[in-house]
Amino acid sequence: MSAGKSALFIDGQSLHHAARALNFEVDYKRLLEEFDRRGPLLRAYYYTTVFETEDFTAVRPLLDWLEYNGFTVRTMLLREHDDGEGRRRWKRNIGVDLAIDAMETAGYVDNVYLFSGDGDFCRLVQALQRRGVFVTVVSTLRRTPGPMVADELRRQADAFLELSDLRTVIARA
Description:
Layout: E1 6-11, H1 12-21, H2 28-37, E2 41-51, H3 60-68, E3 72-82, E4 88-91, H4 95-105, E5 111-115, H5 122-130, E6 134-139, H6 151-156, E7 159-162, H7 163-170
Parallel strand pairs: 1-2, 1-5, 2-3, 5-6, 6-7
Antiparallel strand pairs: 3-4
């Protein structure tokens, strides 16, 4: 990682499932403190989806806390659709919003930490790198039944940070 300002881009559901697979819960205050300690933290974004039919979800208290404590929270509606063969499917897509925010932030930071294992972010990582941004993907390969990060995303990133290695500094007590 290079020195300089950083931004966090957190796929909330990806981080939640990875931490859960590693048997811990993330303490987001400690997470902010850890990454601010690594260098000035300019922005922290958190992305999640909520069901379009729900007025209040179990995640609302977390989202409120994040907003009051320095995170920019982006919520997208989880939409139900027919897959064309009569099956109900849910469309969960945070990628466009995350990519736009990352590209808009790229001119102001030296480092991006992407908390996701989604291989669809490879092109985003490439675009950030072309702009001189050092990209670290944070996910898990070890201590879970299978890797929770796409191999192509891990290889494209400038660095890979194993989530289990952060456990002692970001886990809820």
